[in-house]
Amino acid sequence: MEPIYTELATRIGLGQSERIAQLFQYIADPREAQLLLALPGTAPDVAKVLNFTEPEVSSILHSLFIKGVVFPSSKSDPPKYKMCRDLVQFHDASILWPDAPREFLDVWQEFMEYEWPEIAKNFNKIFPRPFTRVIPVGVTIEAKTHVLAFEDVREIIEKANVISVTKCTCRLTARKCDRTLEACLQINRGAEYNLARGTGRRLTKEEALEVVRKAEEDGLIHVVMNKQNVDQFICNCCPCCCQTMPILIKHNISVIEPSRFAACVDPDLCSACGTCLDRCYFGAIVAAEDGTTTVNTEKCMGCGLCQVTCPTGAISMKETRATDFVPEKLFN
Q1: Which residue of 68, 72, 178, 246 has the lowest C-beta tally within 10 Å?
Q2: Are the beta carbons of 171 and 241 closer than 8 angstroms?
Q3: From CA 156, how far away is CA 152, in angstroms rounded?
């Protein structure tokens, strides 16, 4: 491996990973890698530093933008470009590179299988809160609960200015299930970014709500950034391919926070059909000897998937955490 690719991996805190260096090698030839290391900067600035022509720099920057490793700022003219800042940004953007070869996606999956669990464990120690959180599925929650705008899928969509849908980067690489692939909603800035790259498809609000309904039928969990302003994405995550769910389920590493709600079973309405047992990925629902179920609120992530398919309406979502549980901004 050429040192320049190890240096690129070091830029996002993973210089020890040969797979991350290999991924950069797929994306950038040595000349493009040299340009990446010269960022941040405008095209004219980078051209002067590297002694490239400005048209050549502009062409390379556009190519790397499409590949998901550089990001322009609209705050300056000409725009100032920055390299991807961390693993999460590199993962989510580069996997949607339209011309990504299958080998590239396979190396990403190898990284997620063999390196990500230990890195996630370290993230859990370093950062005060997880990056993402669950929000309940779009079903009716009892009126006495205090549902806030940033945890209501329908309201988030209704308030959005721009919405697009992209393929799920996790299912695209892992291929461990046949759940809906085109399922991740991008909101406002996230939508504009993906539309500009050609990696997203613009949706109307009605179309976005249909994506949500299909996701819930597929048993997918809504996940957003762990802050009150939902202006980037609504992922619809499965328990087998996702960056966060398997880490939590298999390794008990909390890289995602629950919603403010937990499921509650009315024993008088429970028919002991067992449907909710299959819908709960977190082992939070327990069956008694008579077949009726109870919920371990400590394990419940408050996603509401169990409520969607309960045939007797025995399951409701109860508020179990205060309204200030969700921080105003990430790492407040």
Answers
A1: 178
A2: yes
A3: 6
pLDDT tens digits, one per residue of 274-288: 899 989 999 999 988
pTM for the whole structure:
0.91
CB 112 within 8 A of CB 255: no
Phi-psi domain of 204 (left: phi exceeds 0; alpha: psi -120 through 50; beta: other): beta
Tell me if residue 256 falls in helix, strand or coil: strand
Q: Which two tokens stand for residue 31?
A: 């000349």
User: How far apart are alpha carbons 36 and 28 in whole angstroms?
Assistant: 9
Q: Are 86 and 53 in contact (CB under 8 A)?
A: no
Mind listing the pLDDT tens digit for each residue in 163-174?
999 999 999 999
d(CA 107, CA 91): 11
